[in-house]
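Checklist before submission:
- one chain only
- standard amino acids only
- sequence pasted in full

Submission:
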Amino acid sequence: MVLFDCDGVLVDSEPVTNRLLQANLAARGLDVSHEQIITLFVGGTILGVSTQAAKMGATLEPNWVDRFYAQMFETLARDVTLIPGVLDVLDELDTAGIPYAVCSNGPHAKMNITLNACGLKERFSGRIYSREDVTTPKPAPDVYLHAAAQAGIAPHRCVVVEDSPSGAKAGIAAGMATLGFVRETDPGRMAPICDALFDDMGQLPTLLKLSAQARALT
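Returned file contents:
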C-alpha cells in the first residue's frame, strides 16, 4: 500500500499556506523568513505553529488557531492546485492493483477543501486519514499505522511518500519504507531520514517498482 502525505505531495497547498502564515505572523509582531517557515512549521500542525510562534514573540489572540484555519480554508479553496504528475501515479497504482491512502497532520476539514478542489476527494474516498483520527500527530507513526490497520496491510508492506522531515520520521517510526519528495524541500534535511529521494512525481512509479511485469511492491 502507498500512503501519501497530503500537503506538498498530492496538492500544492504549502506555498499558499506559507505565504499566508508569513503575512499573518508579521501582522502579529513576528517577522519570519520563507526559509524559517519551512524549517520551523512545514509538516507540523497549526496548533504547533501557534505554540512556537508565541515563544518567538508573536502576539496571538486566544482564538488565533481557529481564525487562521478559517482564513487558510478560504484561500486554499480558491488557490490550491494539484502537484504535477500525481494523477499519472494514481493511474499506475490503479492499473497495478496497489491500494493507496492519504495521511495528513491537517484536519479533515482542510483535506475536504484541498482534495475536493483538486478533484481527488472521490478518488481517495474511504481512505482519507487525519491526525484527528489518532492520539498523536506526526512525527509519531500513529496515522500511518492506523491507515495500514484499516486496510489490513502489514506496515512492512507499505511505502510512505512524504515531503517533510516530521512526516518522514513518522513513516520510518511506523516501520515503513519512506520516500522523500524534495520538489520544495531541502534534500539535505530529508536524506538522513528517507530510504530514497525524488523531486518529480514522474520518478515515483520507478521507485515503487511499478511495471507491466511487477504487480506488487517488493
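Reviewer check: The mean pLDDT is 90.
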